[in-house]
Structure to design on (344 residues):
């Protein structure tokens, strides 16, 4: 890793660029730790432009930690609908309740206390600590790793834990030369707008410090090993109707889409086995089943391959059946695709 010459000037040039050129975004115009926490949680695996309308409607409905803590999980999930990765919504809700119960409703300032919140890892805690409280705490994500790997010509795979720790150490040194809040956001903004996959070096305020730029080797950094292939999982998915209502089952409390309502589905089984398992679990009697093709849905690390069957049943009660136009909470995009496919 090549050292940065004139690190103090580097930090100033980067931060000064940010102060004059950053995007005017709602979560950038505040130092409210609650809003910054929300923005960071929403931005996990989500682009800014996708996230913005959700952030605006969420903060309008829940302008304070107390208002979020007092809401039902179903209401929180409904507002999150379409943003994906619903575990984040549950974490945000749980964290709000933790803050009310353990911190007297005030967002914690201590770094360890911030990191103890649900779904808050080292990066998110660092971002909140440095941006909201102007503390010299590094916040290193993929964008920052990309920027710093090019600036220093970092010679190893940036996905390795050792690499992340070394870049964090470097950022921790640089952040002391400037206002931590500005410096942290400047690195993020540079990685999002300028030092992208195909970098816009002509617009970069720190290109004179950049090893990759000077050597014309931008395409060689960051170094990454080949990504693992996504795992494909095969399911039989049922759309179960009874008296013009739709049956939804509660998913397990852990794992993908944990504790959410969804369509019943069974992995790696024949139709006959899946129907038998469904009858055993619910006590229903299946009257008819009709194939409706298949739908695939791609998650970050796996693919669901769903063979769809529309099923009619005899049921003794309407428990767990819902009006399809007024579902109590958000369905995953995967099952929204299934319902849209069946309605065609």
């Amino acid at each position: 890793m090549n050292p940065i010459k004139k690190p103090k000037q580097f930090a100033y040039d980067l931060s000064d660029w940010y102060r004059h050129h950053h995007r005017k975004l709602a979560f950038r115009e505040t130092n409210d730790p609650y809003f910054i926490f929300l923005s960071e949680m929403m931005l996990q695996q989500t682009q800014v432009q996708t996230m913005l309308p959700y952030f605006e409607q969420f903060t309008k409905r829940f302008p304070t930690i107390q208002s979020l803590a007092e809401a039902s999980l179903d209401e929180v999930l409904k507002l999150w609908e379409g943003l994906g990765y619903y575990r984040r919504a549950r974490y945000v809700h749980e964290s709000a309740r933790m803050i009310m119960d353990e911190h007297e409703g005030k967002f914690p300032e201590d770094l360890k206390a911030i990191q103890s919140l649900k779904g808050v890892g080292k990066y998110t805690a660092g971002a909140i600590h440095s941006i909201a409280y102007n503390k010299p705490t590094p916040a290193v994500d993929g964008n920052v790793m990309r920027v710093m790997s090019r600036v220093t010509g970092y010679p190893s795979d940036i996905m390795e834990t050792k690499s992340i720790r070394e870049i964090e150490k470097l950022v921790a040194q640089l952040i002391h030369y400037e206002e931590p809040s500005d410096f942290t956001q400047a690195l993020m903004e540079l990685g999002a707008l300028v030092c992208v996959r195909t970098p816009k070096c002509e617009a970069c305020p720190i290109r004179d410090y950049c090893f990759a730029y000077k050597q014309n080797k931008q395409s060689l950094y960051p170094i990454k090993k080949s990504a693992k292939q996504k795992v494909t999982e095969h399911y039989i998915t049922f759309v179960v109707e009874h008296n013009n209502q739709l049956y939804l089952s509660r998913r397990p409390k852990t794992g993908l889409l944990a504790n959410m309502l969804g369509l019943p589905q069974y992995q790696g089984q024949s139709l006959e086995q899946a129907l038998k398992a469904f009858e055993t679990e619910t006590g229903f009697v299946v009257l008819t089943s009709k194939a409706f093709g298949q739908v695939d849905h791609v998650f970050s690390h796996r693919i669901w391959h769903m063979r769809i069957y529309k099923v009619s049943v005899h049921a003794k009660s309407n428990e767990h059946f819902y009006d399809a136009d007024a579902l109590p909470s958000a369905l995953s995009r995967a099952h929204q695709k299934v319902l849209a496919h069946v309605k065609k």
Observations:
- The two ends are 56 Å apart (CA to CA).
- The first strand starts at residue 231 and ends at 242.
